Amino acid sequence: MAAPLLLVALVAATIRAILFRSNLAAFICERVEVVSPLVSWKRVVEGLSLLDLEVSPYAGDLFHETPLTIYLFHFLIDYAELVFMITDTLTAVALYLAVQDFNKVTFKKQKLLLELKQYAPDVVELIRTPSEMYYIPLKVALCYLLNPFTVLSCVAKSTCAINNAIIALFILATIKGSAILSAVFLALATYQSLYPLTLLAPALLYLLQKQFIPVKMSSRQFWLYTGQYTVMYLGSLVVLICLSFFLLNSWDFIPAVYGFILSVPDLTPNIGLFWYFFAEMFEHFSLFFVFVFQINAFFYTIPLSIKLKEHPVFLMFLQIAIISIFKSYPTVGDVALYMAFLPMWSHLYRFLRNIFIVSCMLIVCSVLFPVLWHLWIYAGSANSNFYYAITLSFNVGQILLVSDYFYAYLRREYHLSHGLYIRKKDGTEAALVLK
Q: Where in the cell is it found (predicted)?
């Protein structure tokens, strides 16, 4: 499988190299769907210029990247294009290896449950086979590297690519069962963009299951392991924040990065839900509604963790998708990360209800983003309502996609336990309702 992966990586690198040298690169760098105030390369260059002048990059209201990112590019600015291509490739390889390991674990678990007769007798067609699962890691890598959203983010040199790479490495470390590396990469992801904090729950659930199953876990073991992982995570986060302080000799980066993410002061249009709503709102209401909007990215973690405690990797997928929908400054690069996981759930296709409609919605909205932007900003024949309408449609499409996969996953699990063909007492086929 290494040869096809290498071929995909070469094709992806060639596409990016061609686009970097084309006239489209400047156009892509300006697209509000691809860059945001948090991940814009122009703002990174501005921050580097201030740093070279021995002025704090956080002195103004333009730069909102983390100190470690700006110091990374302080040394690699001349190789930025290569850095972003390598970062995308690293993300794809990490996802490939993570999915490969996850498939092995899934197959062993399935085999054990079959031996214990935990599945209903008529669900043979729902059982996953090695031949079916063989190409899934390659499909995941391909879906990430050749996704137009990923390509656009790379060509725009959006630092979202770095965030994606860190999350991919966190997923790989978690599935490999390395608690220390998992905690470190999760801390690094949280340090970069705050929202990955919600991935703590699925990571901990997976590591607990890998550590103690099939051995029965006591309450003391649960709390001890949870405490150890949390301490490693918080300790790594503190080290990263203190290192940032020593690099800058200032705490200015905390309000400039995390305060900026949470308070949403920059209302530059993007594909998120925040900008239009707060541009139209009276200022004295804004604090309350910022809190209401921000809580969406965190609120679903607990109920989903309770419902999917036996399926932490699927929970991780849902959490990454929720972050990309409800974060304050989303870009298409965030969407590309969770979409790369869709081939992992190819066995759910028979239970998906709206996949054709949702696919059409997402494709049409992606095409209409630049069209309506041009009509609003350049032609003057439309206004912000038009652009926000297509933004809402795009996010509704994402929500429908995620909820459809959630329904399909739960329905398959129900059929595995209760049988594929469920009948009422009168012999008619029963309908399953997700509540």
A: Endoplasmic reticulum membrane
- The number of beta carbons lying within 10 Å of the beta carbon of residue 144 is 27
Outline where 77-218 has alpha helix (H).
80-115, 130-133, 136-145, 148-155, 160-176, 179-193, 200-212
First-residue to last-residue Cα distance in the chain: 41
* Residue 336 backbone dihedrals phi, psi, to 5 degrees: -60, -35
* Backbone dihedral angles phi then psi of residue 209, each to the nearest 5 degrees: -65, -40
pLDDT tens string 132-191: 888 999 999 999 999 999 999 999 999 999 999 999 999 999 999 999 999 999 999 999
C-alpha span between 320 and 83 (Å, rounded): 24
Q: Are 260 and 208 in contact (CB under 8 A)?
A: no
Judge contact between 372 and 382, C-beta under 8 A. yes
Predicted pLDDT at 214? 59
Q: Return the amino acid letter for 381.
A: S
Are the C-beta atoms of 338 and 321 separated by less than 8 Å? yes
* Per-residue DSSP letter, 428: P
Q: In this structure, is the dihedral angle defined by the CA atoms of residues 389, 154, 406 and 168, taken in order, positive or negative?
A: negative
What is the pLDDT averaged over residues 191-197?
Answer: 94
DSSP state at residue 340: T
H-helix or E-strand containing 380? none
User: Is residue 53 very low, low, confident or very high in pLDDT (cuts 50, 70, 90)?
Assistant: confident
Tell me the C-alpha to C-alpha distance, in Å, between residue 145 and each of 142, 358, 391.
5, 22, 24
Separation between Cα atoms, residue 62 and residue 50, nearest integer Å: 11
CA 373 to chain centre: 25
Radius of gyration, CA atoms only, the chain: 23
* Residue 6, both tokens: 């290498």
pLDDT one-digit tens code per residue, 327-383: 999 999 999 999 999 999 999 998 999 899 999 999 999 999 999 999 998 888 888
Query: Measured between alpha carbons, how far is 43 from 156 in angstroms, rounded to an integer?
Result: 12
209-240 exposure pattern, b = at least 16 Cβ within 10 A, e = fewer: beeeeeeeeeeeeeeebeeebeebbeebbeeb
